[in-house]
């Protein structure tokens, strides 16, 4: 089994996201739910498996009837999209937390003034 550099890099990226998601969930970080944890694990474990064992994707593409080149491009596209989606999700959650904190402080300050 020959492992190329992109497989190692992609496997490491997926592993980092799995470990990061696990730490956040088990530390009970704000905004972490079991559903988010499960989705993170399933997606990044799949990416890890496909990166390390690309023959799995080849077997699946043969069963479905897709060509090898198309499958590779689709897989790379999904990885990029998932990276962007997870980053956007964390930015949105952080913004929601900040907005909630600002609204609470404002409400308490108006309550104190009365």
Question: Counting H and I runs of at least 4 residues, what is the number of helices?
Answer: 4
Instruction: Report helical residue fraction.
Output: over 70%
End-to-end Cα distance: 73 Å
From the alpha carbons, calculate the radius of gyration and give it in angstroms: 20 Å
Order of helices and strands: HHHH
Which whole number gives the mean pLDDT?
Answer: 82
Helix-and-strand structural type = mainly alpha
Q: Biggest sheet, open or closed, and with what strands and sense?
A: none
Shape: elongated
Number of E strands: 0
- What portion of the residues fall into strands of 2 or more residues? under 5%
| Poorly predicted sequence stretches spanning 5 or more consecutive residues | none
Number of domains: 1
Describe the fold and architecture.
With 114 residues, the chain is mainly alpha-helical. It has one domain. Helices cover 86% and strands 0% of the residues. The chain is built from four helices and no strands. Helix 2 crosses helix 3. The longest helix is centred in the C-terminal third of the chain and has 46 residues. The chain starts with a helix and ends with a helix.
